[in-house]
Amino acid sequence: MLAALKSTVIPDGWLPLPVDPNTTNPLTRAYRYRGMVLLRVHMLCGLQHWAQFRGRPSDVIVASFPKSGTTWLQEIVWRVVHRETGAQSGGGRTLEYRFPLLDLPATARIAMTPLHEMESPRLIKTHLMYHLLPESVHTSGAKVLYVSRDPRDVCVSYYHFQRMVDYERYRGTFAEFRDKFVRGEVMNGPYREHVRGYREQADHVLCLTYEELHEDRVTAVRRVAEFLDKPLTQEEAEAIARHTDFENMKKNPGCNFKHWEQTRMVKTTDEGTFMRKGQVGDWRNYFTEEESDAFMKWVNELI
Ligand code: PPS
After folding, report:
1. Global pTM value
2. Per the domain annotation, does 204 fall within a domain?
3. CATH of the domain at 76
4. Which residue among 157, 255, 285 has the greatest number of ligand 1 atoms within 8 angstroms of its CB, and so is best to mutate?
5. 63 near 127, Cβ under 8 Å?
6. Sulfotransferase domain: from which residue to which, for each copy (predicted)?
7. pLDDT at 238 over 60
8. Does any domain span residue 129?
9. Which one of 177, 275, 280 would you pick to mutate in the ligand 1 pocket, going by the greatest count of ligand atoms within 8 A of its CB?
10. Closest CA to ligand 1's atom 15
11. Residue % of the chain over a pLDDT of 90
Protein backbone atom coordinates (compact mmCIF):
# COMPACT_ATOMS: atom_id res chain seq x y z
CA MET A 1 0.00 0.00 0.00
CA LEU A 2 2.81 2.42 0.94
CA ALA A 3 4.60 1.83 -2.36
CA ALA A 4 1.34 2.26 -4.25
CA LEU A 5 0.68 5.57 -2.49
CA LYS A 6 4.06 6.85 -3.64
CA SER A 7 3.39 5.85 -7.27
CA THR A 8 2.97 8.78 -9.67
CA VAL A 9 0.77 7.29 -12.38
CA ILE A 10 -2.48 9.28 -12.50
CA PRO A 11 -5.38 7.76 -14.43
CA ASP A 12 -7.56 9.84 -16.77
CA GLY A 13 -10.17 11.95 -15.05
CA TRP A 14 -8.19 12.53 -11.85
CA LEU A 15 -7.08 16.15 -11.69
CA PRO A 16 -4.40 16.81 -9.05
CA LEU A 17 -5.24 19.72 -6.75
CA PRO A 18 -2.51 22.15 -5.67
CA VAL A 19 -0.35 20.71 -2.90
CA ASP A 20 -1.42 22.20 0.44
CA PRO A 21 1.69 22.83 2.58
CA ASN A 22 -0.55 22.72 5.66
CA THR A 23 -1.28 19.05 5.04
CA THR A 24 1.86 17.69 6.59
CA ASN A 25 1.44 14.02 5.74
CA PRO A 26 3.56 13.86 2.57
CA LEU A 27 1.66 10.82 1.26
CA THR A 28 -1.66 12.65 1.17
CA ARG A 29 -2.48 14.06 -2.27
CA ALA A 30 -5.88 15.34 -3.26
CA TYR A 31 -7.53 15.09 -6.67
CA ARG A 32 -10.75 16.22 -8.24
CA TYR A 33 -12.62 13.29 -9.74
CA ARG A 34 -16.01 13.84 -11.42
CA GLY A 35 -16.52 16.99 -9.37
CA MET A 36 -15.51 15.51 -6.00
CA VAL A 37 -12.32 15.91 -3.95
CA LEU A 38 -10.80 12.52 -3.22
CA LEU A 39 -7.41 11.30 -2.10
CA ARG A 40 -4.88 9.12 -3.80
CA VAL A 41 -6.07 6.19 -1.71
CA HIS A 42 -9.52 6.55 -3.30
CA MET A 43 -7.91 6.57 -6.73
CA LEU A 44 -5.88 3.43 -5.99
CA CYS A 45 -8.39 1.41 -3.96
CA GLY A 46 -11.73 3.20 -3.74
CA LEU A 47 -12.72 3.26 -7.38
CA GLN A 48 -12.48 -0.50 -7.68
CA HIS A 49 -14.32 -0.95 -4.38
CA TRP A 50 -17.34 1.03 -5.64
CA ALA A 51 -17.24 -0.75 -8.98
CA GLN A 52 -17.41 -4.13 -7.24
CA PHE A 53 -20.32 -3.06 -5.06
CA ARG A 54 -23.55 -4.99 -5.63
CA GLY A 55 -26.51 -3.36 -3.93
CA ARG A 56 -29.17 -5.40 -2.16
CA PRO A 57 -32.78 -4.29 -1.59
CA SER A 58 -32.29 -4.52 2.17
CA ASP A 59 -29.17 -2.29 2.20
CA VAL A 60 -29.33 0.84 4.32
CA ILE A 61 -26.91 3.59 3.41
CA VAL A 62 -26.08 6.54 5.66
CA ALA A 63 -24.53 9.32 3.59
CA SER A 64 -23.09 12.68 4.59
CA PHE A 65 -20.47 15.31 4.07
CA PRO A 66 -17.86 14.60 6.81
CA LYS A 67 -18.50 15.90 10.32
CA SER A 68 -22.22 16.41 9.78
CA GLY A 69 -23.46 13.85 12.32
CA THR A 70 -22.76 10.64 10.39
CA THR A 71 -21.73 8.58 13.42
CA TRP A 72 -24.74 9.82 15.33
CA LEU A 73 -27.18 8.83 12.61
CA GLN A 74 -25.35 5.52 12.05
CA GLU A 75 -25.71 4.59 15.70
CA ILE A 76 -29.41 5.46 15.61
CA VAL A 77 -29.93 3.44 12.43
CA TRP A 78 -28.06 0.47 13.89
CA ARG A 79 -30.21 0.50 17.01
CA VAL A 80 -33.45 0.92 15.07
CA VAL A 81 -32.66 -1.92 12.67
CA HIS A 82 -31.47 -4.26 15.44
CA ARG A 83 -33.93 -2.97 18.06
CA GLU A 84 -31.07 -2.40 20.49
CA THR A 85 -32.19 -0.31 23.40
CA GLY A 86 -29.48 -1.01 26.01
CA ALA A 87 -26.47 1.07 27.00
CA GLN A 88 -24.01 -0.80 24.76
CA SER A 89 -24.53 -1.57 21.09
CA GLY A 90 -23.33 -4.04 18.49
CA GLY A 91 -21.96 -6.47 21.08
CA GLY A 92 -18.98 -4.16 21.63
CA ARG A 93 -17.87 -4.29 17.98
CA THR A 94 -16.82 -0.92 16.59
CA LEU A 95 -19.21 1.00 14.40
CA GLU A 96 -16.85 0.97 11.44
CA TYR A 97 -16.73 -2.84 11.64
CA ARG A 98 -20.50 -3.33 11.79
CA PHE A 99 -21.34 -0.32 9.56
CA PRO A 100 -18.47 -0.22 7.04
CA LEU A 101 -17.55 2.40 4.51
CA LEU A 102 -18.44 2.15 0.85
CA ASP A 103 -15.77 4.66 -0.17
CA LEU A 104 -12.73 2.49 0.66
CA PRO A 105 -11.97 -1.14 1.46
CA ALA A 106 -10.62 -2.07 4.89
CA THR A 107 -7.04 -1.03 5.64
CA ALA A 108 -4.59 -2.04 8.33
CA ARG A 109 -5.83 0.88 10.42
CA ILE A 110 -9.53 0.62 9.71
CA ALA A 111 -10.95 -2.83 10.35
CA MET A 112 -14.15 -3.13 8.36
CA THR A 113 -16.18 -6.14 7.32
CA PRO A 114 -15.83 -6.71 3.55
CA LEU A 115 -19.16 -5.59 2.08
CA HIS A 116 -19.75 -8.72 0.01
CA GLU A 117 -19.28 -10.91 3.10
CA MET A 118 -21.87 -9.09 5.20
CA GLU A 119 -25.18 -10.64 6.10
CA SER A 120 -28.32 -8.73 5.16
CA PRO A 121 -29.46 -6.21 6.10
CA ARG A 122 -26.18 -4.44 5.46
CA LEU A 123 -25.69 -1.04 7.03
CA ILE A 124 -23.21 1.04 5.03
CA LYS A 125 -21.67 4.49 5.48
CA THR A 126 -20.55 6.77 2.67
CA HIS A 127 -19.23 10.27 2.10
CA LEU A 128 -19.53 9.89 -1.68
CA MET A 129 -21.53 12.56 -3.47
CA TYR A 130 -24.89 11.38 -4.73
CA HIS A 131 -23.84 11.27 -8.37
CA LEU A 132 -20.89 9.00 -7.50
CA LEU A 133 -22.95 6.31 -5.75
CA PRO A 134 -22.71 3.01 -7.62
CA GLU A 135 -25.63 2.44 -9.97
CA SER A 136 -26.78 -0.63 -8.04
CA VAL A 137 -27.55 1.52 -4.99
CA HIS A 138 -30.36 2.97 -7.10
CA THR A 139 -31.45 -0.14 -8.97
CA SER A 140 -31.47 -2.39 -5.89
CA GLY A 141 -33.96 -0.24 -3.99
CA ALA A 142 -31.51 0.25 -1.11
CA LYS A 143 -32.63 2.89 1.38
CA VAL A 144 -30.51 6.03 1.63
CA LEU A 145 -30.45 8.49 4.54
CA TYR A 146 -28.53 11.77 4.45
CA VAL A 147 -27.53 13.98 7.39
CA SER A 148 -26.41 17.58 7.08
CA ARG A 149 -25.37 20.20 9.63
CA ASP A 150 -24.88 23.95 9.93
CA PRO A 151 -21.90 24.35 7.57
CA ARG A 152 -20.12 26.65 10.00
CA ASP A 153 -20.12 23.88 12.63
CA VAL A 154 -19.12 21.35 9.97
CA CYS A 155 -16.14 23.52 9.07
CA VAL A 156 -15.02 23.87 12.71
CA SER A 157 -15.43 20.16 13.42
CA TYR A 158 -13.62 19.24 10.20
CA TYR A 159 -10.74 21.57 11.03
CA HIS A 160 -10.10 19.81 14.35
CA PHE A 161 -10.56 16.41 12.77
CA GLN A 162 -8.04 17.15 10.01
CA ARG A 163 -5.54 18.25 12.62
CA MET A 164 -6.14 15.08 14.60
CA VAL A 165 -5.93 12.38 11.93
CA ASP A 166 -2.67 10.95 10.72
CA TYR A 167 -3.59 10.87 7.04
CA GLU A 168 -3.84 14.66 7.00
CA ARG A 169 -1.94 16.16 9.98
CA TYR A 170 -3.30 19.58 9.06
CA ARG A 171 -1.25 22.40 10.58
CA GLY A 172 -2.80 25.54 9.11
CA THR A 173 -4.93 28.09 10.92
CA PHE A 174 -8.69 27.90 11.07
CA ALA A 175 -8.93 30.82 8.60
CA GLU A 176 -6.73 28.94 6.13
CA PHE A 177 -8.84 25.83 6.52
CA ARG A 178 -12.07 27.79 6.05
CA ASP A 179 -10.70 29.30 2.82
CA LYS A 180 -9.83 25.83 1.60
CA PHE A 181 -13.35 24.66 2.49
CA VAL A 182 -14.85 27.52 0.46
CA ARG A 183 -12.49 26.83 -2.46
CA GLY A 184 -13.97 23.32 -2.46
CA GLU A 185 -10.61 21.65 -1.86
CA VAL A 186 -11.18 19.74 1.39
CA MET A 187 -11.57 15.98 1.15
CA ASN A 188 -15.05 14.88 0.10
CA GLY A 189 -15.93 18.42 -0.95
CA PRO A 190 -17.19 20.56 -2.43
CA TYR A 191 -19.58 21.07 0.48
CA ARG A 192 -22.45 22.89 -1.23
CA GLU A 193 -22.69 20.53 -4.17
CA HIS A 194 -22.53 17.57 -1.79
CA VAL A 195 -25.54 18.71 0.21
CA ARG A 196 -27.48 19.89 -2.82
CA GLY A 197 -26.96 16.58 -4.62
CA TYR A 198 -28.74 14.63 -1.87
CA ARG A 199 -31.37 17.22 -1.04
CA GLU A 200 -32.48 17.14 -4.67
CA GLN A 201 -33.38 13.50 -4.07
CA ALA A 202 -35.45 14.17 -0.95
CA ASP A 203 -38.46 12.41 -2.47
CA HIS A 204 -36.72 9.07 -1.82
CA VAL A 205 -33.71 9.95 0.38
CA LEU A 206 -34.51 10.63 4.05
CA CYS A 207 -32.76 13.95 4.74
CA LEU A 208 -32.18 14.76 8.41
CA THR A 209 -30.16 17.45 10.14
CA TYR A 210 -27.76 17.41 13.05
CA GLU A 211 -29.78 20.20 14.61
CA GLU A 212 -33.01 18.17 14.59
CA LEU A 213 -31.18 15.25 16.22
CA HIS A 214 -30.33 17.74 18.97
CA GLU A 215 -33.76 19.31 19.27
CA ASP A 216 -36.08 16.31 19.24
CA ARG A 217 -34.29 13.02 18.92
CA VAL A 218 -37.32 10.87 19.75
CA THR A 219 -39.12 12.24 16.70
CA ALA A 220 -35.98 11.78 14.59
CA VAL A 221 -35.67 8.16 15.76
CA ARG A 222 -39.32 7.58 14.86
CA ARG A 223 -38.79 9.10 11.39
CA VAL A 224 -35.84 6.78 10.82
CA ALA A 225 -37.87 3.77 12.01
CA GLU A 226 -40.77 4.64 9.76
CA PHE A 227 -38.51 5.17 6.74
CA LEU A 228 -36.84 1.80 7.32
CA ASP A 229 -40.14 0.01 8.01
CA LYS A 230 -38.89 -1.03 11.44
CA PRO A 231 -41.71 -0.11 13.82
CA LEU A 232 -40.73 0.80 17.39
CA THR A 233 -42.76 1.32 20.52
CA GLN A 234 -42.61 4.76 22.13
CA GLU A 235 -40.49 3.26 24.95
CA GLU A 236 -38.00 1.82 22.45
CA ALA A 237 -37.76 5.14 20.59
CA GLU A 238 -37.15 6.95 23.87
CA ALA A 239 -34.48 4.46 24.96
CA ILE A 240 -32.66 4.79 21.64
CA ALA A 241 -32.84 8.57 21.87
CA ARG A 242 -31.43 8.45 25.41
CA HIS A 243 -28.56 6.10 24.61
CA THR A 244 -27.54 8.17 21.60
CA ASP A 245 -27.07 11.44 23.43
CA PHE A 246 -23.56 12.86 23.30
CA GLU A 247 -22.42 11.78 26.75
CA ASN A 248 -23.67 8.22 26.33
CA MET A 249 -22.16 7.81 22.87
CA LYS A 250 -18.88 9.26 24.12
CA LYS A 251 -18.80 6.52 26.78
CA ASN A 252 -19.77 3.75 24.34
CA PRO A 253 -16.64 2.01 22.96
CA GLY A 254 -18.80 0.68 20.12
CA CYS A 255 -19.13 4.14 18.62
CA ASN A 256 -16.73 6.63 20.25
CA PHE A 257 -13.74 5.90 17.97
CA LYS A 258 -11.35 5.76 20.92
CA HIS A 259 -9.75 2.73 19.29
CA TRP A 260 -8.30 5.04 16.60
CA GLU A 261 -5.78 6.16 19.19
CA GLN A 262 -4.39 2.62 19.18
CA THR A 263 -4.54 2.02 15.43
CA ARG A 264 -2.62 5.27 14.79
CA MET A 265 -5.43 6.79 12.74
CA VAL A 266 -5.23 9.59 15.28
CA LYS A 267 -1.95 11.42 15.30
CA THR A 268 -2.57 13.71 18.23
CA THR A 269 -5.25 14.05 20.86
CA ASP A 270 -4.36 17.73 21.42
CA GLU A 271 -7.30 18.61 19.20
CA GLY A 272 -9.70 16.65 21.38
CA THR A 273 -11.15 13.30 20.46
CA PHE A 274 -13.48 12.13 17.70
CA MET A 275 -16.41 12.85 20.05
CA ARG A 276 -15.15 16.40 20.53
CA LYS A 277 -17.89 18.81 21.71
CA GLY A 278 -21.08 17.68 20.05
CA GLN A 279 -22.64 21.13 20.14
CA VAL A 280 -24.77 23.30 17.92
CA GLY A 281 -23.16 26.71 17.40
CA ASP A 282 -19.52 26.10 18.34
CA TRP A 283 -18.81 28.15 15.16
CA ARG A 284 -19.40 31.29 17.23
CA ASN A 285 -15.98 30.69 18.79
CA TYR A 286 -14.34 30.74 15.34
CA PHE A 287 -16.21 33.17 13.08
CA THR A 288 -16.71 36.90 13.54
CA GLU A 289 -20.16 38.22 12.63
CA GLU A 290 -18.85 39.44 9.26
CA GLU A 291 -17.08 36.16 8.49
CA SER A 292 -20.23 34.23 9.32
CA ASP A 293 -22.34 36.48 7.04
CA ALA A 294 -19.92 36.09 4.15
CA PHE A 295 -19.70 32.32 4.65
CA MET A 296 -23.47 31.88 4.80
CA LYS A 297 -23.91 34.11 1.75
CA TRP A 298 -21.58 31.77 -0.11
CA VAL A 299 -23.49 28.71 1.15
CA ASN A 300 -26.87 30.18 0.27
CA GLU A 301 -25.82 30.96 -3.27
CA LEU A 302 -26.14 27.26 -4.02
CA ILE A 303 -28.28 25.53 -1.36
S1 PPS B 1 -17.24 11.58 10.27
O2 PPS B 1 -15.78 11.46 10.54
O3 PPS B 1 -17.50 12.31 9.04
O4 PPS B 1 -17.92 10.30 10.28
O5 PPS B 1 -17.76 12.47 11.47
P6 PPS B 1 -19.29 12.68 11.88
O7 PPS B 1 -19.73 11.54 12.69
O8 PPS B 1 -20.10 13.07 10.70
O9 PPS B 1 -19.22 13.98 12.77
C10 PPS B 1 -18.56 14.03 14.01
C11 PPS B 1 -19.19 15.17 14.78
O12 PPS B 1 -20.46 14.72 15.31
C13 PPS B 1 -20.43 14.82 16.71
N14 PPS B 1 -21.25 13.79 17.34
C15 PPS B 1 -22.29 14.07 18.13
N16 PPS B 1 -22.82 15.24 18.50
C17 PPS B 1 -23.89 15.19 19.36
N18 PPS B 1 -24.39 14.05 19.85
C19 PPS B 1 -23.89 12.86 19.49
N20 PPS B 1 -24.41 11.74 19.99
C21 PPS B 1 -22.79 12.83 18.58
N22 PPS B 1 -22.03 11.85 18.03
C23 PPS B 1 -21.11 12.46 17.28
C24 PPS B 1 -18.94 14.72 17.06
O25 PPS B 1 -18.68 15.16 18.36
C26 PPS B 1 -18.37 15.62 15.96
O27 PPS B 1 -18.70 16.99 16.14
P28 PPS B 1 -17.78 18.04 16.93
O29 PPS B 1 -18.42 19.38 16.68
O30 PPS B 1 -16.40 17.97 16.35
O31 PPS B 1 -17.85 17.65 18.37
Report:
1. 0.96
2. yes
3. 3.40.50.300
4. 157
5. yes
6. 57-301
7. yes
8. yes
9. 275
10. 278
11. 80
